[in-house]
User: Which sequence fits this backbone?
């Protein structure tokens, strides 16, 4: 029986990472996009000449890197994305009798986290699958992952867009703290390539695929070098500036999957202007609740959407330019991986944090949603 009368101290003991098998460089992406743009412009040359249609502007490596800081991305399948006649990944349908694609990569990341922690399925009481895009409505992917791993207990899915991982960490922390679970696996299978508008120059470079896993457990059971969770803080406020309208009602509304709003779209400048100050204020206030200040943090593991956003937030927090040591960047390699980005940053850049030093994981994205987790190395 799991005791529920004692409040437990909680830790993120280990994380896991699954990296897809294929990469797309900016040069490859630009070559495919420009072929598509040239074909479209040639097809509609008369309308463009008449001024009734706007020509598609060419993309460039320089444009992408200046706009985002992204240099490449990992994807589950690249040939379809780089086909100017298709411009979306070629994913193979799997029958119900087979493990789904998101569950497959979720299991891989979860096993990585468990191995790093020296834990087995019998040590875990629940799975939360938290990501920006779910492969299906039901049955829950979390239950499929839970069953594939051999975990007894419960599982459920949740979606708070790019803040899904940090929101799920709070759910897991609360379950472990109050005694309803000894340990929870938070799994973030972010297959973002199918929802990206690869034909849109303003965003065709933004996303990549990946999966992360976070093991949240009682501090007393965690291996040495874990990170105690000192506190979590969540915030949402409604905005249409990041949106995707695809859903189960689309067919009943006689919508086409090719309609622009059935894929990711955003008002990038508005997002930057509104979210960056909000995220910096959120972190500052969260730290103040614990009697802490940003300058006392060893590291910030920030959401990895755009290099300029992280630089802005770093300046607001520290009153100076944040270094790569203050706030590591992984989006140059992975691109925007939705909720997994801040977790990849933590996974890749936590070993040099010393016992007693503090850090913050923070995500921000559609909703708007912001989630932060204050950690101390044990």
Assistant:
């Amino acid at each position: 029986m799991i005791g529920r009368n004692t409040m437990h101290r909680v830790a993120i003991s280990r994380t896991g990472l699954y990296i897809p098998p294929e990469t797309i460089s900016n040069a490859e992406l630009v070559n495919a996009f420009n072929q598509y743009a040239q074909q479209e412009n040639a097809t509609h040359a008369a309308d463009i000449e008449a001024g009734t249609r706007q020509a598609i502007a060419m993309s460039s490596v320089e444009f992408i890197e200046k706009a985002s800081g992204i240099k490449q991305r990992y994807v589950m399948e690249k040939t379809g994305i780089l086909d100017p006649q298709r411009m979306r990944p070629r994913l193979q349908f799997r029958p119900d009798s087979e493990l789904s694609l998101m569950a497959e990569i979720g299991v891989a990341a979860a096993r990585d986290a468990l191995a790093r922690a020296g834990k087995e399925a019998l040590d875990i009481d629940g799975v939360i699958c938290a990501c920006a895009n779910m492969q299906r409505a039901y049955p829950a992917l979390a239950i499929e992952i839970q069953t594939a791993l051999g975990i007894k207990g419960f599982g459920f899915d949740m979606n708070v867009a790019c803040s899904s991982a940090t929101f799920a960490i709070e759910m897991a922390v609360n379950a472990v703290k109050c005694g309803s679970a000894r340990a929870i696996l938070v799994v973030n299978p972010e297959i973002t390539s199918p929802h990206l508008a690869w034909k849109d120059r303003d965003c065709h470079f933004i996303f990549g695929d990946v999966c992360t896993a976070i093991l949240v457990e009682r501090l007393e059971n965690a291996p040495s070098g874990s990170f105690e969770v000192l506190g979590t803080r969540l915030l949402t406020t409604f905005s249409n500036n990041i949106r995707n309208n695809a859903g189960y009602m689309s067919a009943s509304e006689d919508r086409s999957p090719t309609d622009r709003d059935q894929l990711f779209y955003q008002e990038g400048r508005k997002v930057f202007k509104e979210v960056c100050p909000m995220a910096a204020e959120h972190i500052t206030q969260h730290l103040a609740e614990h009697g802490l200040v940003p300058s006392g943090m060893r590291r910030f593991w920030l959401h990895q959407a755009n290099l300029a956003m992280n630089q802005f937030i770093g300046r607001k927090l520290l009153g100076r330019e944040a270094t790569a040591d203050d706030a590591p960047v992984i989006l140059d390699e992975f691109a925007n991986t939705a909720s997994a980005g801040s977790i990849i940053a933590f996974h890749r850049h936590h070993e040099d944090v010393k016992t007693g030093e503090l850090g913050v994981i923070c995500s921000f994205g559609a909703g708007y949603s912001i989630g932060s987790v204050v950690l101390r190395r044990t």
The chain is about 30% helix and 20% strand. The longest strand covers residues 227-236. The CA atoms of residues 295 and 318 lie 6 Å apart.
